[in-house]
Specification:
The complex is a heterodimer of chains A (about 325) and B (about 250). Chain A has about 325 residues and is an all-alpha fold. Chain A is built from 14 helices and no strands. Chain B contains ten helices and ten strands.
């Protein structure tokens, strides 16, 4: 393979790893710092992607209108897509939080996994909403008019990394303040936190909403990268499970760890895809399942031998002073 | 200061607190003793809002507080410790204490983002206060240690230190002496006495260690079967036949 091909491949790998890092950062707010067991990331991924797609595409006209149905199409720039995705996900998280956050954490897990599947099936079955199983195509990419499509991925990588860094800085600043300290107190002991005068329902709600908004941004970044989305993308494996593995590997309760985990796991995941070409013919057909197995084994090895992840939680977190 | 009137609470068929009435005087160190299952801890859980009473009233400085959520009762400056300590395990001692002050500016995330200076100033005040409290309970050398690494007795001291961060007017201590060695115990007793005398904090203490109760508390309230059995000075309680009966059962008379 020529050198240019390898670079292009690495760039596309880094874009997706960067997008997954955004999801992992979102999950880190909820699980790493607050102990909220959200296993419905795919739902926010899906909503974020569709929200941005609907905001940035025009309403189909002419002959397309017969084949493509969507509830609205505002034809707005990319930035509005990102912001819209965050706002819609935040609102959905608020609605989910009202009944579930007063319950014990296990119930949040059950509720979120169910809601994520429901969201995916709604987009699959409701044709009028976003074109059902065929999904939406031709999503606009920022700055695409000015750049040769051959080199476009470099620009998109910069955009993804920029947004990832902004999200990282916002979370860091929140977590190292008294706000983050209360979240961690809730994670450690809810009863003790409420007896310390903290209104834990509101703090858990803020954490759920903030984390879900970040996930919505991740969904929007994904949608504009692939330029086409359909409900079959947002499965529990790619939308939820792999993100959990990333956080566990990188280090729950550490934002740098969340980003590192995303790059490491995505690197292994796509790297093994490469290697399947080397397998003998008889094993090739089974390769995808072997890869699932591999990720599962990786998670177990980490949980047994390094439960705190590659980078564990730092000891001194309230860093506003000294 | 604290008045409990006709309080009721049952769990299934068990009447844990049954028409319980008692008073805690301002500035006192009131002991609360009684056999296991007398309803002492349940009474604490009712006062602090962890449980809602089935009936009766709880008044703090003349205002009803029964039925309020725990964080609002905390804001009226009633603090408690737990029989089995509940520290924030993976947070340092300093952070454990700095969680406690109420209405921190930086507890709103937009202040943390956009009003950094104000938050920073407040953090400095809280940190200094936390250091002072750690000095008081003599845990200062462990300020950057995870709370989970403390010994059982040190965790009891940490619990007391956490309540001090909130400028409490009434502290409810649930078996502060259990599992604490003699030396630490003496320190604990001194701390409680000096808080009461110097800072005017009122205490209500559940304790099974009779020596500690007799040394520290006056008056002593005895609970049995969910209600107040008797109340008096330590000496009066020592001579009260009904108390002996409650602890040992009638047949030993």
């Amino acid at each position: 393979m020529e050198i240019g091909g390898i670079v292009a491949y690495l760039v596309s790998l880094a874009i997706l790893a960067g997008i997954y890092a955004v999801f992992t950062l979102g999950l880190n707010i909820q699980w790493g710092y607050t102990g909220l067991f959200n296993i419905g990331i795919a739902g926010f991924f899906c909503i974020g992607a569709y929200a941005s797609a609907l905001i940035t595409t025009p309403m189909p006209t002419g002959i397309y209108a017969q084949y493509v149905h969507q509830i609205f199409g505002w034809n707005l720039p990319f930035v509005f897509g990102i912001l819209g995705a965050a706002l819609v996900c935040g609102f959905i998280a608020f609605l989910i939080g009202i009944p579930t956050l007063r319950l014990r954490e296990d119930y949040l897990a059950i509720a979120t996994i169910g809601i994520a599947e429901t969201i995916r099936l709604v987009f699959n079955n409701e044709q009028w909403l976003a074109n059902g199983p065929r999904g939406l195509m031709g999503l606009p990419q920022p700055l695409q008019e000015w750049i040769d499509p051959k080199h476009y991925n470099y620009i998109y990588l910069v955009i993804v990394l920029l947004i990832m860094v902004i999200v990282y800085l916002l979370i860091e600043r929140g977590i190292r303040s008294p706000w983050g300290r209360v979240l961690r107190a809730i994670r450690e002991d809810e009863v003790s936190a409420t007896m310390s005068g903290k209104d834990i329902f509101h703090f858990k709600m803020q954490s759920l909403i903030f984390g879900s908004m970040v996930m919505g941004i991740g969904g929007a970044l994904y949608a504009h990268y692939t330029k086409a989305i359909s409900p079959d993308v947002f499965t529990p494996l790619y939308g939820t499970f792999i993100i959990w593995v990333m956080l566990m590997v990188g280090g729950s309760g550490n934002n740098k760890g969340a980003i590192l985990g995303a790059f490491v796991v995505w690197g292994i995941w796509t790297g093994t895809n490469f290697m399947t070409d080397l397998l003998p013919y008889t094993l090739k057909a089974r390769a995808p399942y072997i890869r699932f197995l591999l990720i599962g084994i990786l998670l177990e090895v980490i949980l047994i031998y390094r439960p705190q992840g590659l980078l564990g939680e730092e000891k001194k977190i309230s860093k506003m002073i000294d | 200061m604290l008045e409990v009137k006709g309080l009721l609470k049952s769990f299934g068929g068990v009447q844990a607190v049954n028409d319980c009435s008692l008073n805690v005087q301002k500035g006192s160190i009131t002991g609360l003793i009684g056999p296991n299952g007398a309803g002492k801890t349940t009474l604490f859980n009712l006062i602090t809002g962890f449980y809602k009473p089935d009936g009766g009233e709880i008044l703090f400085k003349g205002n009803r507080i029964d039925g309020l959520p725990p964080h609002q009762i905390f804001r009226r400056r009633i603090c408690r410790t737990f029989q089995i300590t509940r520290e924030f395990a993976h947070m340092t001692l300093l952070e454990n204490l700095m969680v406690m002050p109420e209405n921190q500016l930086g507890e709103k995330i937009w202040n943390a983002w956009f009003r950094n200076e104000g938050v920073r100033k407040q953090e400095q005040i809280f940190r200094d206060k936390a250091l002072e409290v750690l000095e008081f309970v003599e845990l200062i050398h462990l300020k950057n240690e995870y709370a989970k690494n403390l010994s059982g007795g040190q965790k009891k001291l940490l619990e007391l230190a956490k309540t001090l961060m909130a400028d409490p007017q009434l502290i409810l201590l649930d078996e502060p002496g259990a599992g604490v060695n003699r030396t630490l115990m003496r320190k604990l007793v001194e701390n409680i006495k000096s808080l009461c005398l110097d800072r005017g904090v009122t205490f209500l203490i559940i304790e099974h260690d009779i020596d500690l109760v007799m040394n520290l508390c006056n008056p002593v309230i005895v609970m049995s079967e969910g209600k107040k059995l008797s109340e008096g000075t330590p000496d009066e309680i020592r001579g009260d036949e009904r108390v002996l009966e409650a602890y040992l059962g009638g047949q030993y008379r």
